[in-house]
Amino acid sequence: MRTSIIKPIQNPIEFKKQILDWSQQFREVVLLDSNVSYNKDSKYSSYDLVLAVDAFMAIKTDYTNAFEDLYEYQSRMKDWLFGYMSYDLKNDIEDLKSKNFDGLQFPDLYFFQPKKLFFLKGNQLEIQYLNMCDDEVEVDFDEILNHQSPITNHQSPKINQRVSKERYIEKVSKMLDYIHRGDIYEANFCMEFFAKDVQINPLQVYNDLNEISEPPFAVYFKNKDNFLISASPERYLKKVDAKIISQPIKGTAKRSFDMELDEELKVNLSKDAKERSENIMIVDLVRNDLSHTATKGSVQVEELCQVYTFKQVHQMISTVVSNVENTTSPIQIIKSTFPMGSMTGAPKISAMKIIEELEETKRGLYSGAVGYFTPNGDFDFNVVIRSILYNSSNQYLSFSVGSAITSQSIPEKEYEECLLKAKAMFEVLLNK
After folding, report:
1. Catalytic hit among 250, 335, 348, 362
2. Per-residue pLDDT reduced to its tens digit, 276-288
3. Partner of 114 for a Cys bridge, out of 11, 52, 103, 332, CB 3.0 to 4.6 A?
4. Across-strand partners of 114?
């Protein structure tokens, strides 16, 4: 079905820029970058970079029966599939609704079978083309190596805040009321920043955001007019043979240019009782989610509240794993854990209802997941956070940030955490 060719790459960093530039001619593009030079200890990284372009077959749907449709599509194709699941697929799993404002108007679910695939690992590039177009490999490869795009800067958009600081504090206080009443223990509360009538160069914004963030789950996604520019540090779910890996993030601290102070901030985060309790609550939720498809006794916590350092922030990450039977559908594994606990709360359904009531924007692809299925049913998906979403047809741009609210939360501090997470997006959009 596919022709596979191996090529040596002399300068992988330069090649990454060239291949992304070259990919812009296609209607559908998914680029996944592990930024391995910065994230050397990414234990579960499969590739340094993956690029999928040019859809042969695609599926696009709203949330109604979305997982059933995806199961049918994935079972039938048995090939590499790239795409996303939006947060609002929750409505397909539970009796939930999404009635908030949606400026982006992206489909709820989108996957495609790419004609052309590239996998970079170290200095080795594997090219996989569908047999129908394998005669184009050499021409494309030459084009990539000689590709140069002019750098074009965009005008800085006027960025608006959907919820004022005062309203944010009011809403978090309301969420605290629910917590103190015992309706929930924790919920992730998000707010949107947006710009209207804006024209950006998505490729340039991605390059700038990736350069200042270098996260392990960076994404450049394009489906005609819909763009996702993501600097995500978080893995949602990965399947390798019978093993399932989930790596929720809960707990954030700022960085400092002063090395001693930076180390102090990192140590303080690792000892912070509130941040640890946030993380542990979500670990319990993930363990429960994974248990629905796990073989008996296989759910394990490999890492608890480990602090990792990224360019913009320190983050507390846990790693939860399980094993599944080889007869368990990959779609069932995802459906039984979706949406991810780090972006919802506990108990999950109650938290999602309260989130819908208090937030003012439909989340859509934000806090959904982007990634791929392999031909044998393995998969790897990130969590769509630290991300800019852009619809070039209606010229609407959006990015959202959030934090976990628990009984120990102080609304003003949660607001400050949101602004810390938004910092990189503001920097690249306002050319600061």
Report:
1. 250
2. 999 999 999 999 9
3. 52
4. 55
Among candidates 413, 281, 399, which has minimal Cα distance to 348? 281
Tell me the angle at which helices 202-213 and 411-429 cross, rounded to the nearest 10 degrees: 120
427 is catalytic: no
Phi, psi of 406 (to 5 degrees): -125, 180
List 28, 234, 275, 414, catalytic entry = 234
Q: Is 414 a catalytic residue?
A: no
Q: How big is the CA angle at 88 (ends 365 and 27), to the nearest 5 degrees?
A: 40
Q: Is the peptide bond before 339 cis (omega within 30 degrees of 0)?
A: yes
Closest by Cα among 81, 70, 69 to 30: 81
Q: pLDDT per residue over 137-192, tens digit each?
A: 999 999 999 887 766 777 789 999 999 999 999 999 999 999 999 999 999 999 99
Torsion-angle region of 347 (φ positive above 0: left; ψ -120 to 50: alpha; else: beta) = beta
Residues in CB range of 181: below 8 A, 6 or more apart:
none
Contact 114, 51 (CB under 8 A): no
